[in-house]
Amino acid sequence: MAEISSDVIRGYNDTIILFLLKEGPSYGYELSKRIRQISEDKYIIKETTLYSAFTRMEKNGYIESFVDEGDSGKKRTYYRITDQGNAYYESKCSEWDLTKEVIEKFIRR
Amino acid sequence: METIKNYLTNMFMSLPNTPEVVRAKDELLSMMEDKYQELRDEGKSDNEAVGIVISEFGNLEELAESLGIADQMTEEKRDTRPVLPMEKAKEYIEIQGQKGNLVSFGVFLCITSVLSPIIFGISDLDLIVNFGIAGMFIMIAVAVILFIIAGSKGDFKEIEKKTVVLDVETTEYVRNEKARYSSSHVIMLAIGVGLCICSILPPILFSIGNLEDLGAGLMFVFVGVGVLLIVASSYKQGAYDNLLKLNSSKTMAERIMTEEEKKANTIIGNIESVYWQTVLALFLIIGFLTFDWSSAAGIWIWGVIGKIALGICGKLLGREED
Fold first, then answer.
1. Does residue B60 have a pLDDT over 90?
2. What's the gap in Å between the CA of B248 and the closest CA on chain A?
3. What is the mean pLDDT of residues B102-111?
4. N or C: which end of chain B has fewer CB within 10 A?
5. pLDDT tens digit string along B234-262?
6. Domains located in chain A, CATH noted
7. Across the interface, do B58 and A54 touch by the CB < 8 Å criterion?
8. Alpha-carbon distance A12 to A18, whole Å?
9. Segment A30-44 mean pLDDT
10. CB–CB of A33 and B30 under 8 A?
């Protein structure tokens, strides 16, 4: 089975994370677990990739962090999407449509 | 779980100690803990869970840009010193211990060498008196040989020049060994200092009649044994301290140090590490210059007072740094 190269998916980690945060605030491990589940084990995001995406998007104002204890009682850093983040997500979706359309033209089996 | 923590600590050790880096480490640890816990709940063994968590961790280079340390990852600011292998650290401790034994015995011989002329001086025969003087020089010569052997033992330039660092496991090991040794160190130091102070007693007690020589002789035996204990224990203690001092206080390696070890990294720590040796040297210099040993012994009382003052200064400075 072909594996996803991290170079290819890099540009879309933000999209993936923002998609999940649109469903509600979440924290590191929960997000990585959801990504794995939704991708049916085809994409396992590395902890360092996830964390660098958090800090980058927080700096750009796409997400906000806050500390919460959640259900488990363990203090975790949660992230929630901002209006800016929603707008960015929309633009990334349009970008993907275009990308997919273009690349498809060069794929023949 | 401990394995994961150590893995992360080792990964971060060379990075600068900034709020961003600390936060990143905490966050990553939290994610890894969650993942580990879930894997264990799924029935995976400790080894399997640790293996999966570490293999899916990623790499630090990816974090560099988001931590504002991209430049440090390539520049010399990053602590790129290699890790000292545990074996080498153990060897260093052992050799320093041996050196301590050799040097302390050498110093003991030097101090007690004056006994030889005293003992043989009792005789009226010139030949025997000369034997005494010869004996003194033989003892000093043996001491010098011991010093040379001690100096040639082991090659630990990397530790002396601080071109290596300790990883978590070795730090832990050295710290435990030091803690185990600390009670013997304190006892040896206390007895050593005690003997040096008490050395003024024999000359006072035997000042009557023609027992003066006995008094003087006993005094040198007291000082000799006292100094032997101080030097031997200081060498071993110094080995632990030197190893723990390798970890720079500017990087995340500082986070695996205790308060005491951080203090050892400061100037006061440096003074303290040679403190008793300095007092001892002053005591011997004054003693041999004036031959008024009971006055010279007063330096030990000043030494104790100074040590307490230094301790208070260290506490105050430590508080300011926080």
1. no
2. 25
3. 85
4. C
5. 888 888 888 887 776 666 666 666 666 66
6. 6-102 (1.10.10.10)
7. no
8. 10
9. 91
10. no
In this predicted structure, what is the pLDDT of residue B321?
43
Q: Is B24 on the interface with A (CB under 8 A)?
A: yes
Give the model's pLDDT for residue B322. 38
Q: Residue B319: what pLDDT?
A: 47
Tens of pLDDT, residue by residue over B291-321, are: 665 566 667 667 767 766 776 776 666 544 4
Of B244, B249, B201, B246, nearest in space to B223 by CA: B201
Judged on CB neighbours under 10 Å (0-12, 13-18, 19+), A5 is: exposed
DSSP assignment, residue B256? G
Report yes or no: A46 and A9 within 8 Å, Cβ to Cβ.
no
Facing A46 at nearest CB: one of B20, B34, B57 = B57
3-class SS of residue A65: strand
Interface of B with A in 43-72 (CB under 8 A): 56-60, 62-63, 65-67
Contact A52 B62 (CB under 8 A): yes
Nearest of A18, A7, A93, A96 to residue A60 by alpha carbon:
A18
Give the Cα separation of A92 and A94 in Å (integer).
5
Q: Is A28 on the interface with B (CB under 8 A)?
A: yes
Place of tokens 């816990």: B37
Chain A residues with CB-CB distance to B27 below 8 A: 28, 51, 54, 77
Q: Please indicate whether, in this complex, the C-beta atoms of A29 and B62 are within 8 angstroms of each other.
A: no
- Has residue A17 got a pLDDT over 70? yes
- Residue A26 host element (H or E): strand A26-27
Q: What is the longest distance spanned by two Cα atoms in chain B?
A: 92
Per-residue pLDDT of B223-239, as tens digits, reads 889 888 888 888 888 88
CB B66 to CB A29 under 8 A? no
| Higher pLDDT among residues B100 and A2, named by residue | B100
Percent of chain B at pLDDT exceeding 90? 8
Closest to B91 in 3D by CA, of B10, B17, B6, B155: B155
Residues of chain B contacting A33 with CB distance shorter than 8 Å:
38
User: Order of strands, edge to edge, in the sheet holding A26-27?
Assistant: A26-27, A76-81, A63-68
